[in-house]
Amino acid sequence: MSDVDRLHEMIAAARRIVAFTGAGISTESGIPDFRSLGGIWTKYQPIYFDDFIASEEMRRESWRRKFATDEVMLKAEPNAGHRALAKLVEQGRMSAIITQNIDGLHQRSGVPESRVIELHGNGTYATCLDCGQRYELEPIKKAFLEHDQVPICSKCDGLVKTATISFGQAMPEIAMARAQHETMACDLFIVLGSSLVVYPAAAFPQAAKRNGAGLVIINRDPTDQDDSADLVIHSEIGSVMSRVVGVN
User: 15, CA 20 to 30 Å: which among 115, 128, 152, 172?
Assistant: First the structure.
């Protein structure tokens, strides 16, 4: 039996599936992995959350980087891997998608917002750090590029930041709690495109496995958790999942 056939059988037998996605599912949409050679973190020193809060110059630099590197992410489209997961959600077979990605492609593939748990936030909009007011990026970009204006909240005068989790910023408590709940409730946990090196998020696959769920890892390169998985497939996510689920 091929790995694809085995995965198909595991999905068919599962009652409650959770997906855990990392950069690898989005690189197939043309979004570079931040940590890979040539990625953002090899070009820039990260701006830590405390520095963003303390320094207007750091806030200005953060927005400059955002708009200099954002075009690829905002133009990217969901790929076959995203669409396959969306179909499993639509069928009621997948209860949640826990993602380390900030590109919003799961939502754009048709997955309801309520089914996507974003551990590292979302880079397609901004929020006020004080009152939580949401802001779209285009007006912020226009004011920044034309007037060098760093955004301030119009409701409370708080600092406005992209809705992502920065280095040194606490992980989102609600998202982490939801991810933990879904992990412990599932009977099949599928990792797609994560190197499983960023903790605490990378602990979820092992927690699911210890709780009795089947563990599948689909990633181009080996991970440190391959030895504990029930099935490991080193291949492109889109080609595997489109064959398993039946999407283009």
Answer: 172
pLDDT at residue number 37: 47
Q: Which residues are 122's β-sheet partners?
A: 163
Other Cβ atoms less than 10 A from the Cβ of 97: the count is 28
pLDDT confidence of residue 35: 53
In this predicted structure, which of 41-50, 75-84, 128-137, 145-154 has the lowest mean pLDDT?
A: 41-50
Binding-site residue numbers are 128, 131, 153, 156
CATH for 1-31+78-120+171-248, among 3.40.50.1220, 1.20.1250.20, 1.10.10.10, 3.40.830.10? 3.40.50.1220
Residue 130 token pair? 């004080």
Residue 19, H or E segment: strand 17-21
> Which residues participate in the annotated binding site for Zn(2+)?
128, 131, 153, 156
The residues, ordered by sequence, that sit 6+ positions from 76 with a Cβ below 8 Å of its Cβ are 26, 29, 30, 31, 103, 105
- The one-letter amino acid code at 157 reads D
pTM of the full structure: 0.92
- Residues marked active site are found at 120
